């Protein structure tokens, strides 16, 4: 009598287990029960089972909720697969889908709100998550930079924010410059020059003649009515130049411009014109848009000398050109930590110091004075109160 074979180890049972491990027909898969049937007869039996009917009763109470959940899960898993395997490449949508469904437990598309893969690809294109393109070979997709790497989106926002701040600063500088020009023009019109007529010299009874001669002062700095700086030849008057490595005295700051500042101090207070801060030996940045066509806009240069307290003669660092620019169209330059600076504003104006750090949240710099009676003193100053020494 032949002995019967063990049912679990028969070739048929082994073949059934192998088939069960692989992918089966999509139409024989129940998403609510997460059960895969191997043939049509088994799927019909599952549809009449008690467990399936109970799940369908729950689904019938709120079908939109379940469809939306399955759709969101399908989209999330699909995009995660794209990030893992095709982060920056353009690939055929059907190829990606075939890779995605290799996982037996993936969310099937027949349980989502999209009837076909084409509808799903169009949805990704409309929502800006993928670049979708239809070709004779089918639909091709590529992840957008914001989805492929969210850090790129953050960096783009920061760049846009910095650009807006720079534009706001430029507009503010232009408004201040126009207001300064208007005030200067108004003051000239309000004070017309007095006409002096010649008269005969008359002496009565041997009276002595007394001449009332007053000392002349420097004229106010020239204002360009167009609000622009000009290139020039070396035909202007020469002024004393202070070398960058020479010590700067607090009482003798700004060199020859100290006399001009004393002469103008009363006019400055009356007209609201900012006090002069430029001095030879420091590095500044040109922010005049009128010099943009000449290639000097946002470029750095070293101040060689100061004319009439408010005009700086600058040697551009990149080209070596010599340019004269108004103080209103210049900005201070902050060096790297450890660099030497000159305090150009505030109570410690004129002192050389070393930059020890930056507190970006307060927009202030920490400096240590290097000479004079304040040597060794540490202080927090505004960014615009210091500038790099050449």
Topology diagram in text:
Layout: H1 11-21, E1 29-30, E2 35-36, H2 40-47, H3 50-61, H4 63-85, E3 91-92, H5 93-100, H6 117-126, E4 130-135, E5 138-143, H7 145-148, H8 150-190, H9 257-271, E6 283-286, E7 300-307, E8 311-316, E9 322-326, E10 330-332, E11 340-343, E12 352-359, E13 364-369, E14 378-382, E15 386-388
Antiparallel strand pairs: 1-2, 3-5, 4-5, 6-7, 6-10, 7-8, 8-9, 11-12, 11-15, 12-13, 13-14
Concise overview:
This protein is an alpha+beta fold and 390 residues long. The protein is built from 9 helices and 15 strands.
H/E topology pattern: HEEHHHEHHEEHHHEEEEEEEEEE
The count of strands amounts to: 15
Termini separation: 108 Å
Net shape: elongated
Number of helices: 9
Summarize the main sheet.
5 strands, antiparallel
Helix content, binned percent = 25-40%
The portion of residues forming beta strands comes to: 15-25%
Strand arrangement across the biggest beta sheet: 9-8-7-6-10
Helix/strand-derived category reads alpha+beta
Radius of gyration: 40 Å
On the 0-100 scale, what is the average pLDDT?
A: 77
Ranges where pLDDT stays below 50 over 5 or more residues in a row are 217-270
């Amino acid at each position: 009598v032949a002995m019967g074979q063990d049912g679990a180890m028969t070739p048929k049972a082994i073949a059934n287990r192998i088939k069960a491990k692989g992918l089966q027909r999509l139409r024989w898969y129940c998403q609510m029960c997460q059960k895969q049937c191997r043939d049509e007869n088994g799927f019909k039996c599952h549809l009449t089972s008690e467990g399936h009917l109970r799940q369908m009763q729950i689904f019938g109470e709120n079908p939109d909720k379940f469809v939306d959940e399955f759709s969101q899960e399908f989209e999330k898993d699909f995009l995660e697969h794209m990030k893992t395997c095709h982060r920056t490449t353009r690939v055929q949508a059907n190829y990606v889908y075939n890779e995605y469904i290799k996982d037996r437990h993936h969310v099937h598309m027949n349980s989502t709100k999209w009837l076909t893969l084409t509808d799903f690809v169009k949805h990704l294109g409309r929502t800006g998550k993928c670049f979708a393109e239809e070709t004779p070979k089918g639909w091709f997709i590529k992840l957008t930079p914001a989805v492929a790497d969210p850090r790129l989106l953050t960096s783009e926002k920061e760049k846009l924010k910095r650009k807006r701040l720079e534009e706001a600063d430029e507009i503010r500088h232009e408004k201040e410059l126009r207001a300064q020009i208007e005030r200067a023009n108004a003051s000239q019109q309000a004070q017309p020059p007095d006409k002096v007529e010649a008269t005969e010299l008359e002496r009565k009874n041997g009276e002595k003649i007394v001449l009332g001669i007053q000392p002349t002062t420097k004229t106010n700095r020239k204002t360009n009515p167009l609000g622009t700086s000009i290139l020039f030849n070396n035909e202007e008057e020469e002024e004393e130049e202070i070398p960058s490595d020479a010590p700067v005295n607090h009482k003798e700051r700004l060199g020859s411009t100290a006399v001009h500042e004393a002469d103008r101090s009363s006019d400055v207070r009356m007209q609201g014109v900012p006090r002069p801060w430029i001095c030879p030996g420091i590095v500044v940045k040109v922010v005049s848009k009128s010099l943009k066509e000449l290639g000097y806009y946002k470029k750095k240069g070293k101040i060689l000398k100061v004319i009439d307290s408010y005009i700086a003669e600058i040697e551009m660092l990149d080209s070596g050109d010599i340019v004269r620019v108004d103080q209103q169209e210049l900005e201070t330059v902050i060096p790297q930590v450890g660099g030497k600076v000159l305090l150009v504003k505030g109570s410690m104006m004129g002192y050389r110091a070393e930059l020890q750090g930056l507190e970006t949240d307060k927009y202030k710099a920490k400096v240590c004075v290097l000479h004079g009676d304040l040597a060794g003193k540490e202080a927090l100053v505004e960014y615009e109160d210091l500038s790099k020494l050449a």
